[in-house]
Amino acid sequence: MQIAMRMDAAIPLDCDETHWPLAILVAEAAMNVEDIRSGFDRLENWLSHGEPFALLLIVACNPVFLWEATMLQMAAQRIVAVREALHQSLLGIAIVAPTKITDAARQSLARLPLDMPLEIFERSPRAVEWLRQTILAPAGLAVDSL
């Protein structure tokens, strides 16, 4: 089931769970606070299933939110609020981002309370393969349709 969540038609955040146990979020444009809240709402919905899964986050733009203190604080608060479910269900995260923002993304992510495997890639195929081999396979999970 493909779900498109749009707070504003110009700033889409696409959510895809058709490859479960691999959940995919795609940010096609810089996101504002409401877009980030929507992304966390979707993540919390996936966590409510109580099933293990991995997350592939594809950032197809220069997401200014990554290094803004207010955005980081809001993200950290949301992560802390679901910490237990996060550790029980979310096995790992692969982020695909343009080369020009990978350093800033690493610095921002280091400030978030994420105690799980997390890697940043420049290409989706490498990210998916990492999730398959490092995260899903050891947990006895597979994604065949990608």
Describe this structure in words.
This protein is α/β, with parallel strands linked by helices and 146 residues long. The protein has one domain: Transcription Regulator spoIIAA (2-Layer Sandwich). It contains 5 helices and 6 strands, in the order E-E-E-H-E-H-H-E-H-E-H. The protein has helices at 33-48, 69-81, 83-89, 102-110, 124-136, and strands spanning 2-6, 12-19, 22-27, 53-59, 90-96, 118-121. Helix 1 packs parallel to helix 2 (69-81). The protein is globular and about 40 Å long. The relative contact order is 0.16.
Q: Name the poorly predicted regions.
A: 1-11
CATH topology: Transcription Regulator spoIIAA
Helix content: 25-40%
Instruction: Determine the strand fraction and express it as a percent band.
Output: 25-35%
The number of distinct structural domains comes to 1
What would you report as the Rg, rounded to the nearest angstrom?
14 Å
Instruction: Kindly report the spatial arrangement of strands forming the biggest sheet.
Output: 1-2-3-4-5-6
Largest sheet geometry = 6 strands, mixed
Task: Give a count of the beta strands, DSSP E runs of length 2 or more.
Answer: 6
CATH superfamily: STAS domain
Give the topology string: H per helix, E per strand.
EEEHEHHEHEH
Tally of helical segments: 5
Identify the CATH architecture.
2-Layer Sandwich
Please identify the top-level CATH class: Alpha Beta
Q: What is the 3D form?
A: globular
Secondary-structure-based class equals: alpha/beta
The CA-CA distance between the termini, in Å, is: 14 Å
Give the averaged pLDDT, no decimals. Answer: 83
